[in-house]
Amino acid sequence: MDSSIKAGPGGPPPPGGDFIANFERAVGAPSEHGNVHVRMEIDGAIPGERYRFAFIAHPSGIAQFEMSSEPSKRAHKRDAAELAFDQLVRRIDVASLINADIPPPRFPPDSLVGRLELSDGRQQRVFYFMADVEQARTAGYAMDSHLARAVEAIYDEAARQLGTDDIRP
Length: 169
Known about the structure:
Helices cover 30% and strands 30% of the residues. By secondary structure, it is α+β, with helices and mostly antiparallel strands. It has a single domain, classed as Mago nashi protein. Strands 4-3-2-1-5-6 form a six-stranded antiparallel β-sheet. It is globular, with a radius of gyration of 17 Å. The N and C termini lie far apart (39 Å).
């Protein structure tokens, strides 16, 4: 056990307790908390098959999206899109995601790697995943269900905002 975590009468505090409480407070009062955000970035693959996705959303309801795919020759970008941040956060289910025991994956060379970052304005929690379903299946990687739900929520919101059916790799 981490020696900086003190056990109380009921045992150690939950692993993400402080972060979850801070994040929820920050979502409720974004002007009082610094750089609160949800960010997801995906990048990688071999030349000619590259895919890039960038998303960031703030409690103010402003989001930015960008996606490009070499194989499909698709590209979309939208700055200052409006979204319901609280609804996105509910779909992500921050508490379940933070408290999930998600081991860091091992990535084969040329993998399409995703990075999901949650920030409460003071701390960040980062999760990595294989973003290409076929690559993940071949590598024997199964995404944690809590992380998969968060990734799907962001993909769905990005596709809706960009006016396309699907923006997945």
